[in-house]
Amino acid sequence: MQNYLLGAGMYDFEGNEKHLRFHSDAANSRPGFQIRLRQVECLPEDDEGQLSPQPPPFRPLQQGGFTASVLDEGGGPQHEHKCDKILTNRLFDIRSPNYPGGYPPNLDCKYIVFQVRTRYAKRHVLLSGHDFRRALF
Predict the structure, then answer these.
(1) Are strands 34-43 and 91-95 parallel, antiparallel or unpaired?
(2) Structural domain of residue 73, as residue ranges?
């Protein structure tokens, strides 16, 4: 089942991994985006049977480039946008190619977020971002 996420918020993280997908159409490009994801551990259930989120300790953000240059058929430079990524930290940023500039048209990015620890019954992912409107999770 596919769910669209709108803006910042806490989203349930059930299972060992979540897939986040961003797709841009061919019509135009928009300003770049940066999404901060933070996995939040849940404390044991309270008196009402609810799990309470507990913020994780701070860790530096995972850095990395999203673009790579390759040669086209004529031997000239061609830019190939690589944005597929596997994410395993509690706290990290996802940035669109060319961020903070606009992202290119016909972009299809897939991010896999692995749960940091599986001993907790439930997890949450906190999404917040600059110019972040909607993502498929």
Answers:
(1) antiparallel
(2) 4-44+66-136
Q: Is the CA virtual torsion 84, 85, 86, 91 positive or negative? A: negative
pLDDT in tens, 9-19: 666 666 778 88
Q: What confidence category does residue 38 fall into, taking pLDDT thresholds of 50, 70 and 90?
A: confident
Q: What is the pLDDT of residue 18?
A: 80
- Looking at this protein, which amino acid is placed at residue 91? L
pTM recorded for the entire structure:
0.58
Write out 18-66 in H/E/C secondary structure.
EEEEEECCCCCCCCCCEEEEEEEEEECCCCCCCCEEECCCCCCCCCCCC
- Please state, in angstroms and rounded to a whole number, the distance separating the CA atoms of residues 96 and 74: 28
Domain count, the chain: 1
Count of all residues that appear for the chain in the document: 137
Measured over all CA atoms, what is the biggest interatomic distance in the chain, rounded to whole angstroms? Answer: 68
The dihedral of CA 58, 94, 113, 14: what is its sign? positive
What is the rounded distance in angstroms from the CA atom of residue 132 to the CA atom of residue 130? 5
**Residue, of 63 and 91, whose pLDDT is higher:** 91
In a domain, 120, yes or no: yes
